[in-house]
Design a protein that fits this description.
This protein is α+β, with helices and mostly antiparallel strands. It is 43% helix and 11% strand.
Length: 197
């Protein structure tokens, strides 16, 4: 079995070629953070390769999808997707600190504990108090946006109807006195005379 040197501890451990680095490090009681359980979907188990990168398996598609194809620049790999093929590999797991992770988790749980749960009764009381503090809205007396509607006069309707009838009679009388015929009847008479010719 090939040996791997682990920094910052300076340990040298033997790792089976069929086991990924995450599982091998956990078997040796070395802490490496991982929230996906080794499926390669969280990128929490990122480790730095200090030497022997040629003795590692090539990164699979899901690792490239998470970290990108920039291993030659960053020298970072996912421990759950990396297996050892030969001797001379050195890895750095200094980014994985159990103390800092536990502190972060406890701070998160304390923050959740501080979250106040409001009961339905308290919510109703608070809304009632807020309503009492607010000034009453102005009541609209009219439907159309609070405007006063225009008055519709009906007292002069009879006079207007009489005036319309008088105008119609005068117009009829003028037509009869001049002897005008309806324009349609004139057109039909001309068309009949044309046919006779």
């Amino acid at each position: 079995m090939p040996k791997v040197k682990i920094w910052p501890e300076g340990l040298e451990i033997e790792i089976d070629t069929d086991t990924n680095l995450l599982q091998a490090l956990r078997d040796q009681n070395l802490y490496v953070r991982s929230s996906c359980g080794g499926t390669g979907s969280c990128s929490d188990c990122v480790i730095k390769i200090k030497g022997g990168e040629d003795e590692l398996t090539p990164p699979p598609f899901n690792e490239i999808q998470l970290l990108g194809n920039v291993f030659h620049i960053t020298k970072e790999r996912l421990a759950c997707q990396t297996k050892i093929c030969g001797e001379g590999v050195e890895i750095d797991i200094s980014n994985h600190d159990l103390k800092s992770d536990e502190e972060r988790r406890s701070a998160k749980s304390q923050k959740k504990a501080k979250t106040r749960v409001v009961k339905k009764q308290n919510v109703e009381e608070q809304t009632q108090m807020r309503r009492e503090k607010l000034p009453e809205p102005k009541k609209k007396t009219f439907e159309a946006g609070g405007r006063r509607p225009r008055l519709f006069r009906t007292d002069n309707l009879e006079e207007k109807a009489k005036a319309e009838e008088e105008r119609a009679r005068e117009h009829q009388a003028r037509r009869q006195s001049v002897g005008q015929k309806h324009p349609r009847s004139i057109k039909t008479n001309k068309s009949n005379s044309d046919k006779k010719d």
